[in-house]
Design a protein that fits this description.
Layout lengths: L8 H5 L6 H14 L6 E4 L2 E4 L1 H8 L8 E3 L5 H13 L6 H16 L17 H9 L2 H9 L3 H20 L3 H6 L7 H9 L5 H9 L1 H10 L24 H30 L2 H4 L1 H20 L4 H12 L1
Parallel strand pairs: 1-3
Antiparallel strand pairs: 1-2
Protein name: ParB/Sulfiredoxin domain-containing protein
Organism: Faecalibacterium gallinarum
């Protein structure tokens, strides 16, 4: 007889769902073995890992339900455990990995979370290393564990918050995003997480229909910054007064920034999936040719990489 366990929606939401083929294969494996090869992990009677195995057992009560309790103290520790456990999987989509990193960071930042032997890195016997671990910031440690930057961890937290908010506004969208079925720029979710309630609908519409954002832009006249109030001080509005042209230009800047972030994230995803693009000489040569076309396009617009690097150096001086 199957043991009655509780399902927490938030715990379950952190676990990437199985595809139909994966779920079918899991059920076939359980039936072939006649038992669970991996126990269902629980915390205070609530499932932490093994939701799919538990659901399959509901249809096969003849198979015993094997359960193992996790010795975790708080709910935040459970969330951290789930995220770290799932991040160990190899078949995560880029969206799933970013979501889990963000959720782990958010859970570890909550007041009262101190971790335990299940959630903290193993301490080194070397006192200097131990001191380095304790002085290391949470985002820096998570970044080190996942081979990304600390800023990427903070952005992942915004992305995760945006995905969760999108799920509240439009139930079912989280699974589409994390599975890769809905391809919306990560920057949109970051903006949604920081947006005001009155802006939710517009951002959600862009997330649900990412292709529609590019069509109007293609029909717009080329952006001419020399006609903008931002480039001509004499046309700038007095302090405290708004200017429609200023708002329109700011909107265009946001579109350009979103497009740049989307391109960068697409490149990073491709390089992660095919690392030989950066290590093979012939493949690097092909990538270089593609990049040169992009630089030629920027040059045709009047931008040069040397000028950009020069302005950055001046600002940092």
């Amino acid at each position: 007889m199957t043991q009655t366990l509780h399902i927490d929606p938030e715990f379950k939401a952190q676990i990437p769902p199985l595809t139909q083929d994966e779920r079918k294969q899991l059920e076939e494996n359980i039936l072939a073995e006649g038992e669970l090869l991996a126990p269902i992990l629980v915390w205070n009677g609530t499932i932490v890992d093994g939701h799919n195995r538990y659901e399959i057992l509901q249809s096969h009560p003849e198979i015993p339900c094997i359960v193992r309790n996790l010795e975790l103290e708080t709910r935040d520790e459970v969330l951290v455990w789930i995220c770290k456990h799932q991040l160990g999987r190899r078949n995560l989509t880029p969206e799933q990995k970013k979501f889990l990193v963000g959720k782990q960071y958010d859970a570890e930042k909550q007041d009262g979370f101190h971790g335990n032997q299940h959630t903290l890195p193993v301490r080194s016997a070397d006192a200097q290393n131990e001191h380095q671990q304790t002085s290391e910031k949470t985002c820096e440690r998570i970044a080190r564990e996942n081979h990304i930057s600390a800023s990427a961890v903070r952005r992942a937290a915004l992305f995760a918050a945006g995905v969760d908010l999108a799920e509240e506004l439009c139930p079912g969208i989280r699974q589409r995003v994390l599975s890769g079925d809905l391809k919306a720029p990560d920057a949109l979710f970051e903006r949604l997480a920081k947006a005001r309630p009155e802006d939710y609908d517009a951002l959600l519409e862009q997330i649900k229909n990412p292709q529609s954002r590019a069509k109007p832009a293609a029909k717009q006249k080329p952006f001419q910054p020399e006609k903008s109030s931002l480039s001509d001080p004499s046309l700038a509005p007095p302090p405290g007064e708004s200017n429609p042209a200023h708002k329109e230009t700011s909107s265009i800047y946001n579109q350009l920034a979103d497009a740049a972030v989307a391109m960068q994230e697409s490149w990073e995803t491709i390089f992660k999936q095919t690392p030989t693009l950066l290590t093979s000489w012939e493949q690097r040569k092909a990538v270089q040719a593609i990049l040169e076309k992009h630089l030629a396009y920027l040059a045709a617009l009047g931008f040069s990489l040397s000028e950009v690097l020069g302005s950055e150096q001046e600002q940092s001086a």
